[in-house]
Structure formats: C-alpha cells, structure tokens
Amino acid sequence: MSTENFRFYIKVRTALNIQARIIHDELYSVYGDQAPSLTTVKRWSQLFREGREEIEDESRPGRPITETTSENIEEIRLLINDDPYLTIEELQEQTDLSYGTVHRIITDHLNLRKVTARYIPKDLTDFQRAERVRICKENLAKFQQGTWRLCDIITGDESWFYHKQIGRKSSNAAWMRRGDPPPTVVRQ
User: What residue range is the signal peptide (predicted)?
Assistant: First the structure.
C-alpha cells in the first residue's frame, strides 16, 4: 500500500472521529510492519483534524538539480567520445560542472563505467555475451566428461584481452591462427 493510500485511510477514519491509536491498530493488523508508526498516524490525524485536505507531501525547500540537463549530458557524451581516457576532474574543468554532477551524468545517464583508464558501456556486447555462453557450455561439457580442471580457467579483464590479443591482429594473428600460446613477455 502506498503512503498516499495510508494517509487517505487515516483521513477517512479521522473524519469519522476515530482515535489515532485505533486507526494505527487497524492498519497494523492488516499490514503489519509495513503500516505507518503510531507517531505518524497521530501526526496525520492531527493535521486532518486541523483542516488539512491534501494527502500528498508538500514541496520541500532545497536546491533542485539544475545541472543535469540534456545539454550537459550531451556535452559530457561528446567529450568522452572524443577522448575516452578523460578523468572526471578533466571533464569537470572543461565543463565547469561539479564532480558529483559529472559522475552522476556518466554513471546514471550515459550508463558508462571506467575500465583500464577509459570509459566503456556497462553492458556486454552481443559478441561478449555469446562468447561467455560458449565458454560456459564448453566447461560444462568438460565437467560432465570428468576432464574439467580448475587450473584450466584463466580469468582477467576482457577489455585487456580484446585490446591486447584481438585488437592487434597484425602482430598476433599468426600465433592465434596456429593455436600456439602467446609469446611470453617478462616484465619487472
């Protein structure tokens, strides 16, 4: 039951001169812990006795969100499309928006997150989803045959794999076609 429905019930029962305690007990017997507290029922009952008609909340003072406009969202989108390696601080400097606003636009409105120092969509592509399903089916078949080993699974960041292995087809295409393991690179 919504808040307005509870308030409407309180309003009707108050108009019938029923005490707040009885109204609360009735609501609690039907809705249990979802019912409003006795204090809330008393407060609303008193407001309705004093002549309040509305059951909706009154507008509250406070600063409305004015920076999250479609123009600002589009400006951030264009900046990220031009350079996906921008940080929130750099976007903040270029747009004169607050850190929180830039972060809210990126995460809530553009649905992006930062991976390996660049913004990428949160959702997987169709290829990535299909590849995950294929790998899971392959592992399930190995498990059912009794040949599956935990050490056969290599985990890592898919965007790194795509960038390092698939993205550089010219240098790595030969070993990928042959099925050989990638060349070992030793780093300190």
Answer: none
24-54, pLDDT tens digit by residue? 999 999 998 889 999 999 999 999 999 988 8
- Contact between residue 10 and residue 43 where contact means Cβ atoms under 8 Å apart: no
Residue 168 Cα distances to 55, 76, 85, angstroms: 63, 29, 19
Separation in Å, CA 6 to CA 11, 29, 43, 49, 167: 9, 13, 13, 16, 58
pTM above 0.90, yes or no: no
Q: Give the span between the Cα atoms of 177 and 105, in whole angstroms.
A: 42
Each residue's pLDDT tens digit, 102-157 = 999 998 888 887 766 566 666 777 888 888 889 889 888 988 998 877 766 666 55
Domain positions in the chain are 3-50, 70-109, 120-149
In this structure, whether the domain defined by 3-50 belongs to CATH 1.10.10 is answered with yes
Kindly report the CA angle at 178 between 173 and 184, in degrees rounded to 5? 70
The alpha carbons of the chain give a radius of gyration, in whole angstroms, of 29
